From TrEMBL, chain A:
The lineage of its organism: Eukaryota, Viridiplantae, Streptophyta, Embryophyta, Tracheophyta. This is asparagine synthase (glutamine-hydrolyzing). One of its GO terms (molecular function) is ATP binding. Essential for nitrogen assimilation, distribution and remobilization within the plant via the phloem. Transmembrane segments: none annotated. Residues 2-185 form the Glutamine amidotransferase type-2 domain. GO terms for biological process: asparagine biosynthetic process; response to stress. It is an enzyme of class 6 (ligase). It comes from Rhynchospora pubera. Keywords: Amino-acid biosynthesis, Asparagine biosynthesis, ATP-binding, Glutamine amidotransferase, Ligase, Nucleotide-binding. One of its GO terms (cellular component) is cytosol. It comes from the Eukaryota. It catalyses: L-aspartate + L-glutamine + ATP + H2O = L-asparagine + L-glutamate + AMP + diphosphate + H(+). The keyword Nucleotidyltransferase does not apply. Pathway: Amino-acid biosynthesis; L-asparagine biosynthesis.
TrEMBL record, chain B:
Residues 2-185 form the Glutamine amidotransferase type-2 domain. The record marks 343 as: Important for beta-aspartyl-AMP intermediate formation. This is Asparagine synthetase [glutamine-hydrolyzing]. It comes from Rhynchospora pubera. L-glutamine binds at residue 98. Transmembrane segments: none annotated. The keyword Zinc does not apply. Keywords: Amino-acid biosynthesis, Asparagine biosynthesis, ATP-binding, Glutamine amidotransferase, Ligase, Nucleotide-binding.
Length: 620, 590
């Protein structure tokens, strides 16, 4: 990933403004530690912090068309850039960068080229001939992007909120799949796949087609000139990514440069379920496996930074981001710059445990649509920002445009969980990779139910977070939470604690204050950067970029209606709430302990499921 | 390099304080991007930001002795750690880190072990048994270190000023070669070599002994578990470093892991003297050579960042740091974590051009002593901080303890410039590596005078800086400079401009006192200005126009044509391999 910052139509074109924009751009330097670039054209500034993955030698940005009339600053990877280049025969390219096609496509097709790009991207393109500009974000929002407006009428775009939050009067999260055009002055959606309407598809399930689509999605993501690896938690999704990547690695260009042995990475508290599960998969695949152990204290010490980097106060996101953030630092220190990861599968296939309670296929399907549309606020945000904090790029093959089209075109009847037919969650993808002759994974791994959310890194992680938060947040504070935080009011001490940290970095009101102001010093400290001046304005945009509302175990608010009992227990993790994990269906002797469980006494009949699951890992 | 921050004897051991210390420690993260550590013991906090060079897998810090009663946070490299480990046979080591010996040495020898360490280091050691601590910094100050005091009686130690300047009532640079002991509430100098007294040595020049000492200094610095390279500007010092490194690389552990081909790096404006000279040497040595080009605008855009990182307003230091800072980022992006560099030679051998005017050998020698003692404020500070800004470690073999001893015990008569005997500056060093049979460098390179200071990256660099500063600083501002900045008053617009930036980042009075000042000509100390009556009239800190002692200023060419045409070893089955990494840098359209 790279970091982009663009300011267009600034009233101030002084040397001081240039210095200020360079300074703000430095707040994104973690995303692109390898080089910086800035292009000024009259009152427009396009800045870039580069992580060099493709063409490290010459691909410094901003990028240009032949005569330099079109300038573009891009964060992203365009997987079909060679194919697109071939189409642009009449154009002369300046670099080997995959992103350079954007400038030439614009020249050739005007604003209508975005859907031709296969990849993940956020970019700002300035046409100096008529001083117009466009900005766009990829279909699902794998790359982050924010859009802001200054009091002087300037329009701001930034990969992360932190680079524009102090200088914009108002800002929003740039909607994924959209394009902003200065000519029309507004946003419009360029991403219009059939599934977007949420109508119910009827295509029958074709396992081989699904498999092939996923393999293609992985293969195109092996495009890199630098060492890479796979995040492997040992769950189904990451194991499939690792299995497919290791199978196709040998054929790629990257293998010639960096060897054909796949590196895999896993993090957890000592002895955690993920570490065990991942090791098993790594052993099976024969990867070069790296295990990182962290302690609850290390995680807690990192919380402020995690919130600064991920720019959210969403509880599950922060819980899951922290281990990923710690692991990314270690991965980077090994010289690895890019990782493949399994995000998106749970949304596309309804893999969250609460999908067990979907009343019918229509509800099931619509919930998956809603989940995908919200990914940019949750798992995409986490995966991108937790890794980018250390200059590591995450690629997510499940969110490949073609793969989504295929997976979301499937009659949802097939995705429904049916115990009687032996179909557990994500059965369609498991079955698609169930190859007896040349197995991708051993069956017990392919069909295993693993810990969800952050339980896998070790149960004491979430307990530790809760304990720590309760030391900082009193009952009285929580009681007054709705007055302090009327918007997305935190309902738990943990949520309250994260919120206080978030508000410190991204305050709802920043008055004009001197540079010594504590909160801003904190931002500097976190960023490892420094600011010469703070010109804050009144704003309250930051907290509105974070989603809220009721949820059970990662469901949307709508799906909470699926079970009357759920609305009473809105723990964002699924551990104690759902009672749908495999082990809960079995009549196990430990059930006696369930009745002793205080949560069970509150009326949740089958709780403690996960405890059972660890005692006897389910294998279908 | 790593980053260390320690707060000792703090009255506050709350969670909030812990969070604050973590936060401050993060200001040093550029020095150690690979991992962080914090050890808290009551009101004592020892933090560490690690750059993993030795034992990346297990050497996370802080480090401990066997029973964890002694905790140590270290920034540095201990080159003789294996030897020291052997002397500690009854101790059990927890990691493969070279720095772990410090905890065990303390356990064995108390506070008096520092001189046993061969390397560069800054460390804080906490003895939990009696709640005492010691702090030490290497002999010359190759690693950076600051000490401060909080209003609550706490003592603060930080690799860079930015880790403590906002929280200390008073702070200063930690003197190199010193030890601070909490038991004695003060500093004592542990580094007591013969040369420190500045008495005039009389050992005759032994070229082979000097050569051997330098080779040893380079070889011990090849200790690494990660990819490394050399900074090669094409001048004598960096060329010698590269030549010796290339010669000894093959036998090392590093070569087994990362290949026997040496990577060399050079930065400059397009077409600059350094780029040309660096390439010539790289061709001769057959290194994998990387050239980085920057523009004046790239450099100017980086100035604020540079001053923030190197924490000085000294004009020559900032001029020279900027290209090094830009190059370090590119080097790091290639996956290289450590570089060997040629700092220190000019101080040891009187290599600055103003030494031509030294009136006698006593003055000459004393000036070299003063220069070596001040290195931590100038070239050591620059080399360490400009590279550490990007998580790159620099190693400086000329500042090896043993090598310094040898070099500083030579009768200074030999170091004096004697045109009549064909001895230009640093002649003893050139002569030591003048090997006819197995040449380290071609003669014309070995005996060439190169641009000094920042001229080598391109003449327009300094002109560009001056022009940029003049846009920001008016004549009126200069008139009032003495009132605004009574301490170390800037005398040029360029100096004023740097000072303004420095003061914005480090507004405390203590901060400005950490930076040296006073009159200087072409990097001389204030004392040496007395050598030539005319110098005090022209205090340009660069030497270009001021001195009139560069070879071209003499009537006859310094180097006989026969020498310049000396046989190149490239002809002797060494094939040059150059990978040019063109950097389009920051493109500016105006």
């Amino acid at each position: 990933m790279c970091g982009i910052l663009a300011v267009l139509g600034c009233a101030d074109v002084s040397l001081a403004k240039r210095a200020r924009i360079i300074e703000l751009s430095r707040r994104l330097r973690h995303r692109g530690p390898d080089w910086s670039g800035i292009h000024c054209f009259q009152d427009c500034y396009l800045a870039h912090q580069r992580l060099a993955i493709m063409d490290p030698a010459s691909g410094d940005q901003p990028l240009y068309n032949e005569d330099k009339t079109v300038v573009v600053t891009v964060n992203g990877e365009i997987y079909n850039h060679e194919e697109l280049r071939a189409k642009l025969q009449s154009h002369k390219f300046r670099t080997g960068s995959d992103c350079e096609v954007i400038a030439h496509l614009y020249e050739e097709y005007g604003e209508e080229f975005v859907d031709m790009l296969d990849g993940m991207f956020s970019f700002v393109l300035l046409d100096t001939r008529d001083k117009s500009f466009i900005a766009a974000r990829d279909a699902i929002g794998i790359t982050p992007l924010y859009l802001g407006w200054g009091l002087d009428g300037s329009v701001w775009f930034s990969s992360e909120m932190k680079a524009l939050s102090d200088d914009c009067e108002r800002f929003i999260s740039f909607p994924p799949g959209h394009i902003y055009s200065s000519k029309t002055g507004g946003l419009r959606r360029w991403y219009n796949p059939p599934w977007y309407s949420e109508s119910i598809p009827s295509t029958p399930y074709d396992p081989l087609a699904l498999r092939e689509a996923f393999e293609k999605a992985v293969i195109k993501r092996l495009m890199t000139d630098v060492p890479f690896g796979v995040l492997l938690s040992g769950g189904l999704d990451s194991s499939l990514v690792a299995a497919v990547a290791s199978r196709h690695l040998a054929e790629t260009k990257v293998a010639k440069q960096w060897g054909s042995q796949l590196h895999t990475f896993c993090i957890g508290l000592e002895g955690s379920p993920d570490l065990r599960a991942a090791k098993e998969v790594a052993d099976y695949l024969g990867t070069l496996h790296h295990e990182f152990h962290f302690t609850v204290q290390e995680g807690i010490d990192a919380l402020e930074e995690v919130i600064y980097h991920t720019e959210t106060y969403d509880v599950t996101t922060i819980r899951a981001s922290t281990p990923m953030f710690l692991m990314s630092r270690k991965i980077k220190s090994l010289g690895v710059k890019m990782v493949l990861s399994g995000e998106g599968s749970d949304e596309i296939f309804g893999g969250y445990l609460y999908f067990h309670k979907a009343p019918n296929k229509e509800e099931f399907h619509r919930e998956t649509c809603r989940k995908i549309k919200a990914l940019h606020l949750y798992d995409c945000l986490r995966a991108n920002k937790a890794t980018s904090a250390w200059g590591v790029e995450a690629r997510v093959p499940f969110l490949d445009k073609s793969f989504i089209n295929l997976a979301m075109d499937l009659d949802p009847e097939w995705k429904m969980v049916k115990r009687d037919l032996g179909r557990i969650e994500k059965w369609v993808i498991r079955n698609a990779f169930d190859d007896d002759k040349q197995p991708y994974l051993p069956k017990h791994i392919l069909y295993r139910q693993k810990e969800q959310f952050s339980d896998g890194v070790g149960y004491s992680w979430i307990d530790g977070l809760k304990d720590y938060a309760s030391q900082h947040v009193s009952d009285a504070m929580l009681m007054n939470a709705s007055f302090v935080y009327p918007e997305n009011t935190p309902t738990t001490k943990e949520g309250y604690f994260y919120r206080t940290i978030f508000e410190k970095f991204f305050p709802k009101i920043c008055k004009q204050y001197p540079r010594e102001h504590y909160d801003n010093k904190r931002i500097e400290d976190l960023a490892g950067i420094h600011q010469l001046s703070i010109s804050g304005h009144l704003h309250n945009a930051a907290r509105s970029t974070v989603p809220g509302g009721p949820s059970v175990a990662c469901s949307t608010a709508k799906a909470v209606e699926w079970d009357a009992a759920w609305s009473k227990n809105l723990d964002p993790s699924g551990r104690a709430a759902l009672g749908v994990h495999d082990a809960a269906y079995e009549d196990v002797p430990e059930k006696t302990t369930v009745t002793a469980n205080p949560i069970a006494a509150n009326g949740f009949a089958v709780t403690g499921a996960v405890e059972f699951a660890t005692a006897s890992p389910a294998s279908a | 390099m790593c980053g260390i921050l320690a707060v000792l004897g703090c009255s506050d051991d709350s969670q909030a304080k812990r969070v604050r210390v973590l936060e401050l420690s993060r200001r040093l993260r550029h020095r150690g991007p690979d991992w962080s550590g914090l050890h808290q013991f009551g009101g004592n906090y020892l933090t560490h930001q690690r750059l993993a060079i030795i034992d990346p897998a297990s050497g996370d810090q802080p480090l401990y002795n066997e029973d964890k009663s002694i905790v140590v946070t270290v920034n540095g490299e201990i080159y003789n750690h294996e030897q020291l480990r052997k002397s500690l046979a009854n101790h059990k080591f927890r990691t493969g880190s070279d720095c772990e010996v410090i905890a065990h040495l303390y356990e064995e020898h108390g506070e008096n072990f520092v001189d046993m360490l061969d390397g560069v280091f800054s460390f804080v050691l906490l003895d939990k048994r009696d709640n005492s601590f010691i702090v030490a910094r290497d002999a010359i100050g190759v690693t950076s270190l600051y000490i401060g005091w909080g209003l609550d009686g706490s003592v603060w130690i930080s690799s860079e000023m930015k880790g403590l300047n906002d929280d200390c009532e008073h702070f200063e640079a930690f003197p190199p070669g010193h030890l601070y002991s909490s038991k004695e509430h003060g500093f004592k100098r542990w580094y007591n070599p013969v040369w420190f007294s500045e008495s005039i040595p009389s050992t005759p020049f032994d070229p082979l002994a000097l050569r051997k000492a330098f080779e040893n200094a380079v070889i011990k610095r090849l200790m690494t578990d990660v990819p490394f390279g050399v900074l090669l500007s094409g001048g004598l010092d960096s060329s010698l470093v590269s030549s010796v490194t290339a010669r000894h690389l093959a036998g090392t552990k590093a070569a087994e892991q990362w290949g026997t081909q040496l990577h060399s790096f050079c930065v400059g404006l397009e077409g600059s003297p350094d780029l040309k000279a660096g390439k010539e040497v790289a061709d001769y040595l057959g290194t994998v050579h990387h050239e980085f080009h920057f523009t004046v605008q790239d450099g100017i855009d980086a100035i604020e960042d540079v001053i923030y990182h190197i924490e000085t307003y000294d004009v020559t230091t900032i001029r020279a740091s900027t290209p090094m800072f830009l190059m370090s980022r590119k080097i790091k992006s290639l996956g290289v974590k450590m570089v060997i560099s040629g700092e220190g030679s000019d101080e040891l051998f009187g290599g600055y051009l103003y030494f031509h005017k030294a009136p006698n050998k006593e003055e000459f020698h004393q000036e070299t002593c003063r220069k070596v003692k001040a290195l931590h404020q100038y070239d050591c500070l620059r080399a360490n901080k400009a590279t550490s800004a990007w998580g790159l470690e620099v190693r400086v073999p000329f500042l090896d303890k043993e090598f310094i001893n040898v070099a500083m015990s030579i009768d200074p008569e030999w170091k004096m410039i004697k045109r009549d005997q064909g001895r230009i500056e640093k002649w003893v060093l050139r002569k030591a590596f003048d090997d006819e049979e197995n040449p380290y460098l071609p003669k014309h390179i070995l005996y060439r005078q190169k641009e000094q200071f920042s001229d080598g990256v391109g003449y327009s660099w300094i002109d560009g800086l001056k022009a940029h500063a003049a846009q920001h600083v008016t004549d009126k501002m200069m008139q009032n400079a003495a009132r605004i900045y009574p301490h170390n008053t800037p005398t040029t617009k360029e100096g004023y401009y740097y000072r303004m930036i420095f003061e914005r980042f480090f507004p405390q009075n203590s901060a400005r006192l950490t930076v040296p000042g006073g009159p200087s000509v072409a990097c001389s100390t204030a004392k040496a200005i007395e050598w030539d009556a005319q110098w005090s009239n022209n205090l340009d800190p660069s030497g270009r126009a001021a001195l009139g002692v560069h070879a071209s200023a003499y009537e006859h060419a310094t180097v006989p044509a026969s020498l310049s045409a000396g046989k190149s070893a490239a002809e002797m089955n060494k094939k040059a391999r150059i990978i040019k990494v063109p950097s389009q840098g920051v493109i500016i359209s105006t």
